[in-house]
Amino acid sequence: MRAFFVAALLAAGSLGSAAAWADTVEVANVKYETALDLAGQKLQLNGVGIRYKFVIKVYTAGLYLSSKAGTTAEVLAAHGPKRIHIQMLREVDGNELGKLFTKGMEANAPREEFVKSINGVLKLSEVFASRKALVAGDNFSVDFVPGVGSTLQLNGKPLLSEPIKEPEFFSALLRIWLGDKPADESLKEALLGLKKARR
């Protein structure tokens, strides 16, 4: 009888571990929740991946939406709040990162969308330029809430005094990773849930 109870407890423990594991996805030793609440709505992890520069892992990225989307057009058209979450895997100069993001938005967004995003682009560049560097372990999120705008958090702390109101900004930002000239083609596919992230 005692052996039965021990076996039952072990089985329960392994089920608990499996359930806990199912609530997160791990990539490059970074855990992403499979679901989260934003502005009172439930979002699910659409995809997660790693940004490589040559063979060097630079950061991980996770995209959260209210419903699954498998194409860039579906992501941009998706209703409700959205989040892109980045976690650094190595040190990157803050000013350089801001410039790369700006170039990525300009290269991928339609001209009219980019022009309407200028206010947000400048604010984002200022935020990164004000930091000497982002180091391994630093993370930032950009949240978009319809009717409110985009907010930026670094290591969980808000960085803007008020949201970036232009909805075009968030769309242009997402195009860095999901546009026709993405920062990393493999990461694009991972964020769209088309393939598992490279480890």
TrEMBL record:
Signal peptide stretch: 1-22
Any one GO MF annotation of this record: intramolecular lyase activity
Record carries keyword Ligase: no
Keyword Ribonucleoprotein: no
SUPFAM superfamilies associated with the record: Chalcone isomerase
Domain of life: Bacteria
Boundaries of every Chalcone isomerase domain copy: 25-193
Keywords, ordered alphabetically: Isomerase, Signal
Name this polypeptide is given: Chalcone isomerase-like protein
One Pfam family here: Chalcone_3
Gene source species: Roseateles saccharophilus (Pseudomonas saccharophila)
Alphabetical list of InterPro entries matching this protein: Chalcone_isomerase, Chalcone_isomerase_3-sand, Chalcone_isomerase_sf
